[in-house]
Design goal:
The chain is α/β, with parallel strands linked by helices. The protein has two domains: about 5-235, no CATH class; about 240-380, no CATH class. It has helices at about 5-15, 15-25, 70-80, 105-110, 115-130, 140-145, 150-160, 170-180, 185-205, 215-235, 245-255, 260-265, 270-290, 300-320, 330-340, 355-365, 375-380, and strands spanning about 30-35, 40-45, 50-55, 90-95, 160-165, 210-215. Strand 2 and strand 3 (about 50-55) form a beta hairpin. Helix 9 (about 185-205) runs antiparallel to helix 10 (about 215-235) and helix 12 crosses helix 16. The chain is elongated and about 95 Å long.
């Protein structure tokens, strides 16, 4: 027996990841609601509203030019404006669709960002659908929107945005969580945690005959639990947030700090020198941010350096005993390579790739270690 129940279920369930997206973008004083001011809506502390209608399909684009879903969406917004629930000048109208299709009227409306462009887009809709008559499944909504409420439609189109995603809508949630600098390996877990919380909260509100409104404070309180747990299980690479530019690397290279002189002693290549500068700057930036964010403390950083120092000391001695036939620069290069490949943790958490090498270069900059067998003499001022 055929049924459209799976498609209908997807239509309702997609509102949860969409609500999560709104919550992840929200700020203090904002709130997000489901089935109150649209399928999903967010209201800022200043009263600005984003009203979103969600359309989904298991196979094809659900918002073709002649689809009921497209014109019913605009009819719903017109009803909300007429009833006073939405004020066009303070509302952003979003139509989210989980399937892409050819660029039709929805795309044309989305591209219209001023009154002139909105008028042109609506005129285009009238022209292309001039054969749409009573009896067509979409006529009731098209007639209401275009023929009877064109003025309101023009106001909506100026503030309208079409967004497209894929599948069940969680790809967009993934991107939003990733923007929060959550470690990659914990994103799926956090999404499942927050999705379960949101579903339970909304279900309880509905069962209590309350509107499904979620405040930012409610969300932030719940979000802190998995977020803090995730970032303590794996150190966040804050350097991804502020990538190094070529000028910054070049200026640091030009200053020739002590650790770069140490690389000259062992005849490191130009590529190795640039890599060292990058590792040094990234490691320093991350360490400062970790301490500032109280992810680690000074004692944890000192313990980490002590572990690296002990490895360097033992490896330096071993190379001196087993590789006496190598030249001094070669022995230094071997020692550096061994140290850069060392695996170590900070408070049982694995640091980003550049941390080990960057910390060794920071130690060589003091200098408390060196690569050349005669590094103490060569660095003596």
């Amino acid at each position: 027996m055929k049924s459209n129940a799976p498609g209908q279920l997807l239509g309702y369930s997609i509102q949860y990841p969409r609500a999560l997206c709104h919550l992840l973008r929200a700020n203090s004083g904002d709130y997000v609601c489901i089935e109150v001011l649209g399928d999903v809506a967010s209201v800022s502390a200043t009263g600005e509203t984003t009203s979103e209608e969600d359309k989904s399909s298991l196979s094809a684009n659900p918002i073709t030019d002649r689809s009921v879903d497209l014109w019913k969406t605009f009819a719903n917004w017109i009803d909300a404006i007429t009833s006073g629930n939405l004020v066009p000048s303070r509302t952003r109208f979003v139509l989210y669709c989980n399937k892409t299709g050819k660029l039709g009227l929805a795309s044309a409306f989305s591209s219209a960002k001023n009154s002139k462009a909105a008028k042109a887009a609506v005129t285009k809709a009238k022209k292309e659908l001039n054969d749409l008559k009573a009896g067509h499944v979409a006529w009731e909504y098209f007639d209401k929107v275009v023929n009877k409420n064109e003025k309101l439609l023009l106001e909506i189109v100026e503030r309208f945005e079409l967004q497209t995603g894929v599948g069940a809508g969680y790809d967009e949630v993934y991107k939003e969580v990733r923007h929060k600098l959550v470690p990659e390996s914990h994103i799926d877990w956090i999404i499942k945690y927050m999705s379960g919380w949101l579903f339970q909260l909304v279900s309880e509100k509905i069962a209590a005959n309350q509107p499904a409104i979620i405040t930012w404070d409610e969300f932030a309180h719940q979000w802190k639990v998995p977020y803090d747990r995730a970032r303590r299980l794996e150190l966040i690479d804050f350097a991804l947030e502020s990538p190094l530019d070529k000028e910054m690397v070049a200026n640091h290279h030009k200053d020739k700090p002590k650790y770069l002189h140490q690389l000259e002693f062992i005849e490191a290549s130009d590529d190795e020198v640039i890599e060292a500068v990058t590792d040094f700057l990234k490691a320093k930036y991350n360490r400062d941010k970790w301490i500032e964010a109280e992810i680690i403390d000074e004692s944890s950083a000192a313990e980490f350096e002590e572990k690296l120092f002990n490895f360097w000391k033992n490896k330096n001695k071993a190379i001196g005993l087993t590789n006496s036939t190598l030249s001094d620069p070669q022995r230094g290069q071997l020692l550096l390579a061994e140290c850069k490949s060392k695996s170590e943790t900070i408070r049982d958490a694995s640091p980003p790739y550049s941390t080990i090498a960057g910390t060794y270069h920071a130690m060589a900059n003091v200098p408390s270690i060196g690569w050349h067998p005669n590094w103490k003499f060569l660095t003596k001022e």
